[in-house]
Amino acid sequence: MDKEITNAELKKLLSEKLARLRKTSGQTIEVTAESLNMAVSEYFRFLKGKRLPQLRTLMRLSKKYGVTLDWWFSKRPELPGKQADLRQKALELELLGSYRKLDYRFQDILRETARVFVKKRSLKPNLLSREYA
Q: Which pLDDT belongs to residue 84?
């Protein structure tokens, strides 16, 4: 018969995986907690294995790092995806979180500025092309 996992073992498993994901993302504890819309102290308790996250919190963590819920409970130590992918996803979610905190008028301004920037950037000739050689 399989041995039942204890709360202490579960906390340790989740905290080790969370620590690896955070480290791989390159974000500080403060930035990560803010991007998850939680208090730094709460995130720190999960990170240090002092507390188990609720299912909703675990789902937010899964979404942030691009892992499935079952990954948290598997004994496999490998990280999903490439480190660069995790960092990119973490950065994108951080930017999206910052954007959502802006007043709607500033969101409109930022969206229009980005649209103009992308349009002008696509019209620029490639500086590395032969035309400039």
A: 60
Place of tokens 């103009």: 116
| Cα gap 43→29, rounded to integer Å | 8
* CA dist 26 → 18, 31, 102, 123 (Å): 13, 10, 24, 33
Q: What is the DSSP string of 65-102?
A: HT--HHHHHS---PPSS-HHHHHHHHHHHHHHHHHHHS
Q: How far apart are CA 3 and CA 75, in angstroms?
A: 14
CATH architecture label of 7-132: Orthogonal Bundle (1.10)
pLDDT on residue 123: 60
For 42-63, the DSSP string reads HHHHHHTTSSPPPHHHHHHHHH
CA atoms of 122 and 120, how far apart (whole Å): 5
The pTM assigned to this predicted structure is 0.57
